[in-house]
Design a protein that fits this description.
- With 450 residues, the chain is mostly beta strands.
- The protein is built from 3 helices and 19 strands.
- Helix content is 5%, strand content 45%.
- 40% of the residues are buried.
Length: 450
């Protein structure tokens, strides 16, 4: 009874008094949470979920994988900004991308997309601060994409969210090549995306993930110019247009990229076994561009992109020195179709597409004696040239009420791989073709914005 009375007496305090300080602290924290930002700087959270079922057939084996669609992969972003006046804005952008079961990385041996670099999980896509002035333009410092990023993929349609027409490597091209002569997978690092230029991307793609300085001019009648400097790596410049011309929605761009002498960047001219500073600042450069036009009354559209890469550094590698290897890589790609609001849900898109690539030495990898792609079964063979031809078609349905796009598309890829036998360390032996099976891909899924 005494204990009970003591307990009752000690507890005879207004519960509101005991928690007042805690509740005040919670209220203070809520005022500075991600929902609102702090008292001076706003903060907005947004993101994308883009999951697909990837069905593949490589001439012998087939399977269905659940993947993150790397055309516009799942991510979440934090954007903060402060506007001291109507003409100026300061801000910061942080974006985290999801790589788990990435459609670019999956292959016949790994449905999770884990390659020999352990490339899975999450990564920082953007981490930069910016200064924006209405008459000044934008200055960006930090980690982000370069001026020519996706310059060959201008697009005014919703295919931009799930099936980029130039960046075909993003969906299923991590699959290993399979020999059509013996039906076996290659044991080397030769995947389908290695057929299309040295870095595994089409010969116009610039990458994210660099500490850079970028400047973009204000827009003038829909046009603006952008320039990027990445210390000891590369620089690039581009101009872009987004606007309306009469009855047409138009997006277009063209850009030029050049490797800085002595740099060891593998973004532009990857594939060289050793990148050597030969004192020639024009030995590695690329030019690319694209245009997208949609006729608003009918919904008919055309997307076209092309790129040229001159990889002179490949001639500095030991195996290609003095061999006369071709250093040009070129591609052309496009989509044609119709995008129209046929129902109340949102826009419906129906399209066909084609991609072609032709290039010289495309990778630092080589084919060994025990590899299924070895033309004679003996000796080591260097990659001499390659070609790729891809055609496809797709359909998508937007659901505006859910900020969602449902999509399905099919692609058929055929390729050619030419090898040259190594004489010691130099590719001076005979040239032979390594026949490979075609690849069929079906991507079906949904992208949701929030």
């Amino acid at each position: 009874m005494f204990l009970l009375a003591a307990t009752t007496s000690a507890g005879a305090v207004d519960p509101g008094d005991c928690c007042a300080d805690l509740e005040a602290r919670i209220a203070e924290l809520e005022a500075t949470t991600a929902r609102k930002g702090n008292r001076k700087v706003s903060l907005v959270i947004s993101g994308t979920i883009n999951q697909s079922a990837l069905t593949w057939y490589d001439g012998k084996a087939s399977n269905v994988y659940t993947v993150t669609n790397d055309n516009d992969r799942s991510r979440f972003s934090f954007v903060s900004k402060f506007e001291p006046s109507a003409d100026w804005q300061f801000g910061y952008h942080l974006e985290i991308g999801i790589k788990a079961a990435n459609s670019l990385r999956v292959n016949q041996l790994s449905p999770q997309g884990v390659d020999n670099r352990g490339d899975f999980g999450a990564d920082i896509r953007d981490s930069f601060w910016y200064l924006l002035g209405k008459r000044f333009g934008a200055l960006i410092i930090g980690t982000t994409f370069a001026a020519t990023d996706r310059i060959a993929d201008s697009n005014v349609t919703q295919t931009n969210a799930f099936a980029k027409y130039s960046e075909i490597q993003d969906a299923g091209f991590g699959m290993f090549l399979r020999s059509s002569r013996n039906g076996q997978l290659t044991r080397s690092d030769l995947t389908w995306r290695r057929l299309i230029a040295a870095g595994g991307d089409q010969p116009s793609e610039s990458q994210r993930g660099f500490e850079l300085i970028k400047y973009a001019t204000p827009k003038w009648n829909g046009w603006n110019a952008i320039g990027t400097w990445v210390a000891d790596d590369f620089w690039d410049v581009a101009t872009r247009y987004d606007g309306t011309v009469g009855r047409f929605n138009v997006s277009a761009g063209i850009g030029y990229t050049q490797l800085v002498p002595g740099a060891r960047s593998r973004v532009i001219c990857a594939g060289a076994n050793v990148l050597v500073d030969n004192g020639d600042d024009t030995s590695c450069r690329q030019l690319s561009g694209s245009i997208s036009v949609l006729d608003k009354p009918t919904g008919l559209f055309v997307n076209f992109g092309s790129g040229l890469n001159l990889n002179g550094l490949i001639k500095d590698t030991l195996r290609y020195q003095g061999t006369g290897v071709r250093d040009q890589h070129i591609f052309a790609s496009g989509q044609i179709g119709i995008e129209q609001r046929f129902n109340d849900l949102g826009k419906t898109t129906i399209y066909g597409e084609h991609f072609v690539y032709d290039g010289g030495a495309a990778t630092a990898a080589f084919v060994g004696p025990a590899d299924s792609l070895n033309p004679t079964g003996a000796g080591n063979w260097a990659i001499w040239s390659s070609r790729a031809n891809v055609w496809g078609a797709g359909i998508a349905q937007g659901i505006d009420a859910a900020a969602m796009i449902l999509y399905m598309y099919y692609r058929h890829a055929s390729g050619e791989l030419n090898l040259r036998q190594l004489d010691g360390f130099t590719a001076t032996g005979p040239i032979a073709n390594a026949p490979i099976d075609d690849l069929d891909l079906l991507m079906s899924g949904a992208v949701i914005r929030f």
